[in-house]
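Hi! If you just cloned this repository, the fastest way to understand the data is to look at a raw example. We've pasted two of them here, unedited. The first protein comes first, obviously.
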Amino acid sequence: MMACKSAAEKAVIAEQRKASKRRLTQYRQANGLCTQCGKPVLPGKRLCIDHHVKVRRKKDPRWNNDIPRSMRPGFGVCYICGADAVSGKSLCKDCFTALSTSAKERMQNPTPEQRAAQKEYMRVHKALNELAFLSRKRRS
């Protein structure tokens, strides 16, 4: 029969586990891995997306079990409304239609600021295209 471990033996085992966990956490942090599971981390964070969302949901009631807008495309949902996104896109069909309609309206009726920005863009790119044309012409 095996005897029960003494309190001192249990304390030693607990300390060894803590040290092992500490080493593993330090290794994962040094190699850009999630400290909880070892998956790649989010930029500037120490957790993967799954654990980051889990911790935020647990600590912050404002998240209300919802995925933040910036992370929604990674989960295949529309970043505006949270509905299922169209395959390969970051928007659902309804939001895509609404945005494309408003974009067409803006293009047809630009504000003076938008017109000025368009003219500046065309001026700069016209000069760049002329330089590229001249450099190609010189090479040939």
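Ok, and the second one:
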Amino acid sequence: MEEDLDAHALRRQGWSISAIARHLGRDRKTVRAYPSGERAPHQRRQPPDAFVPFLEYCRQRLCDDPHLWASTLFDEVAELGYPGAYSSFTEALRRYRVRPHCEPCHATKGPGPGGDRAPAGRGDPARLDRTSRSARRVGRR
């Protein structure tokens, strides 16, 4: 905010945009945007979210088939012009909570693979071969 006030004050004193930019250590286009209110100091413009134009299409497809794989849906929206990467696409699906809730799927899921037990051989020193490298990595004391 102080930088914005400095730019306004210097401009009123007759300084050129280039002189103000040099004085503040900013680009001329940035300093020119301060007085017009197009930009505030220390705030970056957020690029438009590339997913938003495809949001309703994804919602509709997932309402039609809640078990549709994200990779299949990504292929479809990429054909329609989605410019982002798969990782950006799946992150947007989560951010916008596009996938509908499926009660049967959530009811069958437990705490993880194998229920609440850890897979055999992991974290249980009694199950590890004491002469193996993995036992040494666990750090017998």
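That's it. A detail worth noticing about the second one: Residues 114-121, 124-129 have pLDDT under 50 and may be disordered.
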